[in-house]
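[Q] Does anyone have a clean structure-token version of this?
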Amino acid sequence: MLVHLYFANNSVRNTTISCDSLGIHYTVSKGDKIVSLSRWDNTTNSDMVVGEFELPFFKKDRIKVGPDGEWQPMRDYFDKPGMLSNSMIFTSNNGMKYIWKDHWGYLIMTHSDDKEPLIKYHHNISKPSYLEVFDSSIITGLDTILLTFLIAERKKRDYEGAAAVSAAS
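[A] Here you go.
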């Protein structure tokens, strides 16, 4: 079953991510310096924070996974596949190992040992952006999958912005 998770806008710091047909609803919000990801819990009728991250300019990046998680450096949370790679390997809350990587301008997620995309991000300007989920079995790991997606996409945008500035000078 193909699932689309739609973004209310093109921000990865202040937006909602949802699939109404499956009752999936996440809120991304940026406070002073910390970006939080919350999931709507229909049993309690409230938002539950599932993770947070901080990408400070002069300090080390850090992440907190889960509602009761501890802050940790991102370099301790993500595995790096290679010295020159921008890919990010992580273990989701469903226990599976995944990797976010840039594939011809699209951010995709695969199993860490596979090439077939499980998720592909479609970044659009004139219509809503969305994550296309090819394997619905990964929905059980959505909390950490979305948290790590937000980090991977933010880093990709920062990298592209720095490259554009460098090319212009």
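[Q] Thanks! Anything notable?
[A] The chain has a mean pLDDT of 90.
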